[in-house]
Target: Laccase
Amino acid sequence: AKTHYHDFVVQATPVKRLCKTHNTITVNGMYPGPTLEVNNGDTLVVNVMNRAQYNVTIHWHGVRQIRTGWADGPEFVTQCPIRPGGSYTYRFTIQGQEGTLWWHAHSSWLRATVYGALIIRPKEGDSYPFPKPKRETALLLGEWWDANPIDVVRQATRTGAAPNVSDAYTINGQPGDLYNCSSKDTLIVPVGSGETNLLRVVNSALNQELFFKVANHKLTVVGADASYVKPFTTSVLMLGPGQTTDVLITADQSPARYYIAARAYNSAQGAPFDNTTTTAILEYKSAPCPAKGTSVKPVMPTMPAFNDTATVTAFTTSFRSPRKVSVPTKIDHNLFFTVGLGLNRCPPGASRSTCQGPNGTRFTASMNNVSFVLPSNFSLLQAHQQGIPGVFTTDFPANPPVQFDYTGNVSRSLWQPIAGTKVYRLKYGETVQLVLQGTSIFTAENHPIHLHGYDFYILAEGFGNFNPSRDTGKFNLVDPPLRNTASVPVGGWSVIRFVADNPGVWLMHCHLDVHITWGLAMAFLVENGVGELQTLEPPPKDLPLC
Ligand code: C2O
Model:
């Protein structure tokens, strides 16, 4: 196994998109940032230097960070932020994961532009469990704002209203030629007739689930979230923010140019949605050149409608592990967490300008009616490891304080969340079953729930209220997929299981950044086990403190 050394300089860089140039926070001047390529078993050492005017941290999304929780990155959870002028070296080893992950800033909304791909090839000497692709392309789906994303979230926090939606979706940072001033920079993916290539698709968008299609071509899904899956063929993918999907694509169509397109899946009823489409071009090398002075538009795929939940369900329920897996059967913690939005009453005495949500309210979000608040004086991990009192409490509830019908109109008294920094404590090696139940309070929508430090099995998903006597029988205990981010269906639920075999403090949150801003998060505190191999490593000497 190798060790890979990288320097990441976080800095403001002028970037031109949609006819305008503005200063954008980047890594090494690149938007999106550098692609890291490693083999399973390798070690990464990334020295992050902050030359921007904002606090920053970098998170290695999906990397298990076994015993190296100090390198996980979410600010105030596993470290204090790297201040302007400061630096921190992240050091960790990839253990048993193969496929596509990514890295992103985990501070305010900086990840809008601070992100990149992390490609993990098989262990040296091993090969893919599918025919070797001729070439590989990482496709990072994203969102671009004409404004500074930090200003967008600051304004939303000040007013209590929903933040402005982005001005474009992007593929590898490019909106594509359906947007103004974007044609000449549209990403071209070249392909030879008859070749089979691997596309590594990442949803790095801030706030948007996305459909993904390539005109006239079938996609064979072979992996997701850096685990292999039993291959299945589809014409459309749906990825929630945080999720990755690896697909094989064979160039078996007539030589021409075909659009690669991504468009919003927006399940929020009544919420504004952006119906624009971002495009790249799959270009056959043998495609005939258009006659001089003419141009032939690439073939456009028909995209699903923004509310096409049936297509999403058909896709998400197709995932299986490649073979029988050993799902933990003895459950130590049987948990039920509600996930959803709400509206807080305007606090007494507050100015109307801070209550610009619907009907003079402020948006909020919670899990089990707790709206998560990050600490500011210590990271949760430091407070845990050093026994510093008063930073968090360990009373995150195993069940919602009141159970009700999550699909109906509910009385507001049932969903006034309390603000708190609450964690749920697990002993090393305990097993967890967790039902994630979407509430349809205010609005029903799909929530991409991401757990740090772990992969989990998704046993089942469904619509309406989870009903143990009816739904337990649907659990896939044979070959469920292993993921780090679950798309909890709109107005429905997902059931996940994992073994708490990685000591540390691990954030779990909705990967729509606007929802984490409103408090849709919690953390698991996993205690050390017995002996060195079950114990968190000591903190690095350069760990940023508050
Ligand atoms: Cu990809 Cu907590 O994040």
About this structure: The chain has three domains: 1-127, 129-319, 333-534. The longest helix spans residues 149-159.
